[in-house]
Amino acid sequence: MNTTTPAPSGFSADYVAGLDGLAPGETARARATGPLEFRAGDGPAIRIQPDAQLQLERAPASMVVSWQEDDQPMSAAIPVVVFNEYLQSGKVSIVK
């Protein structure tokens, strides 16, 4: 069963539909309900602790996630397919 949304009209072919319900450029608030760990490209593993308050901004093929860690601003672009897994598993809850 396909639960992703189609590309909004007027967006380029590089748009990847996701479970987030956001179009590129839209923002939302979210909360990490479980630990999130991912690797940004060839860089080090990034871990977001449970209960972190997240700011989301949808890009065509990724979700830009911003949060605070030890009073420092952090951000990362997470591929939509990985962010979909977080939503499906309940590790992220979007507040909008």
Provide a descriptive summary of the structure in words:
The protein has a domain at 27-39 and 47-94. The strands form 2 sheets. A 5-stranded antiparallel sheet has the order 6-5-4-1-7, covered by helices on one side. The protein contains 1 helix and 7 strands; from the N terminus they run ββββββαβ. The model has no long low-confidence stretch (mean pLDDT 87). Strand 5 (62-69) and strand 6 form a beta hairpin. With 96 residues, it is mainly β. 10% of the residues lie in helices and 41% in strands.
End-to-end CA span: 25 Å
Number of strand segments = 7
**Helix/strand class:** mainly beta
Shape: globular
Strand % is 35-45%
Helix-strand pattern: EEEEEEHE
Strands of the widest sheet, in order across it, are 6-5-4-1-7
